[in-house]
Amino acid sequence: MKNLVLLGGGYGNMRVLLRLLPNNLPEDIQITLIDRTPFHSLKTEFYALAAGTVPDQEVRVSYPEHERLKMVYGEVVEINCADKVVVLSDETRIPYDDVIIGLGCEDKYHDVPGADEFTYSIQTIGRSRETFNKLCGLPSGSVVGIVGAGLSGIELASELRESRPDLGIKLFDRSPRILRDFPERLSNFVKKWFDKHNVDVVSNSNITKVEPKVLHNHEETIAVDAVVWTAGIQPVAPVRNLNTETDSIGRVVLSQYHSLPDDENVYVVGDCAALPYAPSAQVAEEQAEQIVQVLQARWKGKELPEKMPEIKLKGFLGSLGKKQGFAYLADRTVTGRIARLMKSGVLWMYKWHNG
C-alpha cells in the first residue's frame, strides 16, 4: 500500500484530508499525518488565545477519523527526499511515496539582537499559551510592546486592549501608516480605533535591539514589561534545510503543480511555498485544492493539465476586538460591525465544515 504523508496539520493539509476522506482516497493509498498536537489548531485565532479573550478549546478542531488515516505525533527534524523518508526528533523514520510539506513558519527576527531571546510569539499554539500566561499575568499599569503592525499585530493589539484595559500598549509599525498597501480609508479606520482605545501606534519604527524590559527604536530606548514579535516569518528549519531552490525569504520554489521542480512526489503547501501572495490560511486551502487534483490525476495515470488555473483570492478579514473589524474584498473596503460579523461567520463555517 502506498503512503501519502502529510507533514503538519495546518489549513492546507486539513483541506487535503477534507477532500480525500472519506470516499475519495484510492483503496491502495493510506495517509499518515504527522503533527506535534492531536488536533488541528486555528492559527488565525492565536491572537485571541494570547490575549485571553478565547479559551484554548475554541482554537482547536479535531482531525477526521478513517481506517486508512494514521496519526503520528512528533517533531519533524529532517525531510530526506533522496531516501523518501521523514525523520522525527525521536529518530523515528517514516517512509513516503508522496509527501505534502505543510509545516508552517516561525518568527523571523531579521538579525535583531535579543529579539529571539526576549520576545514572545503567537506562531504556534504552545507559544501562544506562553504569551497568554505572560500578558495576562502582568500587573496593572504594565506596558506591552508589539513589534510588527501587520494583521497579526493589529488583531493582537486590539484584542489585548479589550482583555486588559489597564495595560499600556505600543504597536510598532515600520511603515508611515497602518496597512500601507491597502486603501487609505482602511488605514484610517484602524488608526482611529487605536487612537480611541489608547493604543499607541509608533510609525516609521525600526527596532534595532531588544533587551529585558527595553526596546531600542532607532536611537530611542523604550521601557516595556513584555514584547510580542509579529514582525516577519520564515519557513521552519526542516524546510530551510531542503536542498532545493528558494526565494529571497526562504520559501520553496515550486512547479505549477505545487511540487518540487525535480521531484513530483514532494509537494509544499502554505507558508513554506514561494507564491506571489502573502501567506494565509486562504492561500494554503486554495493550494491544497489543486494538490488534491494533481494527486488524483497521477494516481489514476491521467495526464496533468498543461497549465494549472491561477489561484484567486477573495481578500482578507481582520478584527478589532469583538465588535469591530475591517475587510478588503474584491477591491472594496468594509469596516465596522459588518466586517466583524463577516469574520465570525467565516470562522463558524470553517469549524462546521471541518466537523
TrEMBL record:
One of its GO terms (molecular function) is oxidoreductase activity. It comes from the Bacteria. Residues 3-288 form the FAD/NAD(P)-binding domain. Its cofactor is FAD. Keywords: FAD, Flavoprotein, Oxidoreductase. Belongs to the NADH dehydrogenase family. This is NAD(P)/FAD-dependent oxidoreductase. InterPro entries: FAD/NAD-bd_sf, FAD/NAD-binding_dom, NADH-Q_oxidoreductase. SUPFAM superfamilies: FAD/NAD(P)-binding domain (SSF51905). Pfam families: Pyr_redox_2. Its EC number is 1.6.5.-.
